[in-house]
Amino acid sequence: MQNIFNIKSIDKNDCTEFWLTSIENHGKGIKIINYAIDFLRLNNAQAFSIRLFGNKNELALANEELRSKKLRKITCPPLLLIDDSSELRIQLHAISKVKSYPLCFDNEFIGREFEDNNAKYLMMHILPDNANDTRYAQAENMFNKADKFLIAFNSSFSDAIRTWLYADNILEWYDQLNKVRNIFFEKHGIYQHLVPASTGIGLANLNGTAMATQVLAVIPKSGNISIQKAFSPLQKPAFDYKSSFSRGVKVQTPHDQKLYVSGTASIDKRGVTAFIGDTAAQLDMTMKVVNAILDNAKMQWSDTTNAMVYFKHCHDFHLFDNFCRKNKINIPHVKLQADICRDNLLFEIELDAIK
User: Fold this and answer.
1) Which of its termini does the chain have fewer beta carbons within 10 Å around, N or C?
2) 148-181: pLDDT as tens digits
3) pLDDT digits (tens, 9 = 90+) for 23-50
4) pLDDT digits (tens, 9 = 90+) for 130-155
5) Closest CA to 229 of 157, 146, 151, 160
6) Per the domain annotation, does 56 fall within a domain?
7) How many CB atoms lie within 10 A of CB 277?
8) Is 28 exposed, middle or buried (0-12, 13-18, 19+ CB in 10 A)?
9) For range 319-344, the mean pLDDT
10) What's the mean pLDDT in 175-191?
């Protein structure tokens, strides 16, 4: 499967984790879903997170397959993001050797949980209930559902460490989305706990709602786990310009350290967009910012398990490949054309890493 997926794995005493990212121009079309399922079965693994990017027809077929009851023991609800690419792409995070269960609420399949010796991990895929509501109301509904689901699983939103917020036409209403998030965080005391790392990107979803979301929560089982915000030496905290997310979050256990780096773009220490109109310069600055986050966490690019790369214009995709070749960086990633949360931002990257 090496000619279909970039595969990263880590084998711990109590758990094995896998990260699969489809390679560019894999040529398998919708059949890539079958290869992913075959991988899960071959490794006796369960999917903890699935993200799919493609056209509406292929996404619908993939969703039907992955949500079938016969596969519920090994899959999870996929995030389905519409993309103009000519091929279906996938990012998959899977686990084996641990207890893992589907998360269901009111007969709705919403995610998956697993636990190791240090913590319980919950990944939820959440959509607003009513696509006909205003965007503001849908965002409110989404955050409230996330908290309701977590409470049902003996947790709360204060255990959330990472959110992925994909909003259709984000530039038209990002201020509203931020307002909803700020009010929710204030109401639920999130500012007194850990503010999650996050991504806010403009992509439509197959369900036609104003947004589609993933929420990752980590519930420690003992004092052997440390969860802290990560520091971005070349930027100021996003809170300083009223955007409620941490630059990253670190999860440290006796066996490893995981780093979740938020969507990161060319924003300087004043909170101002740098290099307006110059994609290559924005990319260069952004990669320096992320490198500093990794370095501060005592990690390297090679520790990356998966990454998402967003460009405002698809004709700039080659700039990332050129940069990585020049700087000897090789990370599993998916490139997408999408609006970023500011109209003058031309490039953004997010990644997860483990060491």
Assistant:
1) N
2) 999 999 999 999 999 999 999 999 999 999 999 9
3) 998 988 899 999 999 999 999 999 999 9
4) 999 999 999 999 999 999 999 999 99
5) 160
6) yes
7) 9
8) middle
9) 97
10) 96
Show the domain range for 81. Answer: 1-100
Position 181: which residue type? R
Q: Could you please report the per-residue DSSP string of 217-283?
A: EEEESSTT-EEEEPP-TTS--GGGGT---BSEEEEE-SS-EEEEEEEEESB-TTS-B-STT-HHHHH
**What distance in Å separates the CA atoms of residue 242 and residue 231, rounded to the nearest whole number?**
17
Write the CA distances from 186 to 150, 179, 215, integer angstroms.
18, 11, 18
What's the chain's average pLDDT?
Answer: 94
Q: How far is CA 52 from CA 61, 215, 322, in A?
A: 11, 16, 25
Residue 79: which CATH number?
A: 3.30.1330.10
* pLDDT score for 90: 97
Task: Tell me 99's DSSP state.
Answer: E
Pairing of strands 347-354, 304-311: antiparallel
Per the domain annotation, does 321 fall within a domain?
Answer: no
Angle between helices 135-152 and 174-187 (to 10 degrees): 30
The conformation of residue 342, written as its DSSP 8-state character, comes to S
Cβ(241)–Cβ(174) below 8 Å: no
Cα 171-304-315 angle, rounded to 5 deg: 45
Residue with tokens 């979050």: 249
38 domain-assigned: yes
Phi, psi of 281 (to 5 degrees): -70, -40
pTM above 0.90, yes or no: yes
CA–CA separation, 17 and 93 (whole Å): 7
- What sign does the CA torsion over 319, 323, 326, 332 have? negative
Task: Establish if 76 belongs to a structural domain.
Answer: yes
**CA separation for the pair 269, 172 (Å, rounded):** 25
